[in-house]
Amino acid sequence: VSSSLNYSIWPNSLPLGIQWNDCNGATFKPSSGSRVNNDEAREINIVFQNILQHIKDTNLTIGIVTPYSQQQRQIQQIITATTPTNILEKHDVKILTAHKFQGSEKDIMIFSVVLSSKGNGNSDRWYNANPQILNVALSRAKYLLWIVGDKQFCLQREGILKKIAENYELIKKE
Description:
The protein is 41% helix and 20% strand. By secondary structure, it is an alpha/beta fold. It is globular. 37% of the residues are buried.
């Protein structure tokens, strides 16, 4: 985390650094289209609405990122249906895929892993083929990165998902 941050604007009621909401939803991959995890999309909205309560008196910005376009659309639908447009504009909320998030920073980033042990779409080939894109997405948070996903699934994989989950565990122990 950069030292040029202004911590006086950060609400005391919200943690800094990295958080993880464990979500064991099922991942589905339709024959055409990308992966989606509806339970995780709903959990993302719960995290998002909770964060909004803590930052309502600020102009802190929020990004929501996921590798999969179908998940991005699902999250977008839920959030736009449950959040007034003026609130989304005030906090410059962007809900994008990891490919599209390159180059833009947000005070708070929420990351949807999507993959889980349940369902038919749990191949993590994309993650291992695109670690640089994932790294870009995860490093865009200025104050807070909030991961939502099936942590046990991530810990059991080989490759980038395991690294993310293990690093989270290490940070939490410190």
